[in-house]
């Protein structure tokens, strides 16, 4: 299909973009922000979105790039997935982000799609929102009135809805460094290499001696927003990753804890999976992710 007609605006700076968005909101106009366009353009072609105007940020020099800022890594909103994936800082300091980014769509999409665009699109089937939630990332938002910070737990409001207000754009995301002792894994079940996750699990596990000292687990596509598996996180604390007991009587306590991963979730039903199947996947994939992260 051909998109509905819209005005095209390409601001020369982030400040101009914020001003244009604020003016559009004051006038009651529906305006969409375009970065890489890998999520927005399909919606336009299907006429699931028909804004009065597009504000194209794709050629702005900022905010893009990856910066090591001591206790966290700052990823500019316009940084492409490919740039994130190739960043040595990301691979060394926040490896969970690299692991998840490697599963996003295909190389063509990763070269055009942006880190910030994926976050703001707020698709619960997207891979990166779950990573942001698991790592307790902080979103830095800018408007003509200044900047504000939004914790990941408050950024994803509902299906395809973020906490960005009128006249606001995402400047970037602060990704905390969790330090030594942590292991990471992103486990994803999808139909094809390019497809959205039917279910995904972002896991970060800290070992204390022979036991699990702390676990952070976030689920992809198990509700209208990414969700933390709090029951499993609590159940894993203090457990040994190795099964207890001998022979046929050995008990895998980690598997038991991961059996609670779907607690409190509301998985959708669609052409690809029913809720019960997604719940099963959440339990199985959480176990795999925790095992890999704690190994």
UniProtKB/TrEMBL annotation:
Pfam families: CO_deh_flav_C, FAD_binding_5. GO terms for molecular function: FAD binding; oxidoreductase activity. Keywords: FAD, Flavoprotein, Oxidoreductase. Residues 1-180 form the FAD-binding PCMH-type domain. SMART domains: CO_deh_flav_C. PROSITE patterns: FAD_PCMH (PS51387). Residues 237-275 are annotated as: Disordered. PANTHER family: XANTHINE DEHYDROGENASE SUBUNIT C-RELATED (PTHR42659). This is Carbon monoxide dehydrogenase. It comes from Streptosporangium minutum.
């Amino acid at each position: 299909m051909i998109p509905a007609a819209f005005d095209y605006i390409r601001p020369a700076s982030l400040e101009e973009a914020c001003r244009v968005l604020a003016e559009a909101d004051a006038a009651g106009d529906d305006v969409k922000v375009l970065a890489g366009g890998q999520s927005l353009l399909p919606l336009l072609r299907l006429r699931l979105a028909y804004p009065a105007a597009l504000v194209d940020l794709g050629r702005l020099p900022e905010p893009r790039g990856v910066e090591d800022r001591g206790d966290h890594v700052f990823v500019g909103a316009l940084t492409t997935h490919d740039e994130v994936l190739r960043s040595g800082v990301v691979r060394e300091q926040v490896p969970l982000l690299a692991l998840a980014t490697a599963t996003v769509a295909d190389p063509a999409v990763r070269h055009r799609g942006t880190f910030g665009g994926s976050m703001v699109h707020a698709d619960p089937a997207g891979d990166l929102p779950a990573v942001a939630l698991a790592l307790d990332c902080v979103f830095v938002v800018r408007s003509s009135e200044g900047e504000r910070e939004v914790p990941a737990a408050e950024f994803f409001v509902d299906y395809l809805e973020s906490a960005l207000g009128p006249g606001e754009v995402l400047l970037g995301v602060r990704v905390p460094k969790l330090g030594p002792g942590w292991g990471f894994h992103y486990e994803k079940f999808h139909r094809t290499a390019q497809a959205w996750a039917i279910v995904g699990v972002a896991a970060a596990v800290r070992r204390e001696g022979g036991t699990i000292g702390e676990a952070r687990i976030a689920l992809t596509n198990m509700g209208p927003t990414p969700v933390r598996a709090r029951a499993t996180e609590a159940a894993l604390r203090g457990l040994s990753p190795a099964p207890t007991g001998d022979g046929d009587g050995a008990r895998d306590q980690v598997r038991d804890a991961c059996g609670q991963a779907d607690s409190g979730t509301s998985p959708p039903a669609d052409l690809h999976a029913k809720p019960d199947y997604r719940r099963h996947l959440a339990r199985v994939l959480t176990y795999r992710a925790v095992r890999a992260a704690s190994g």
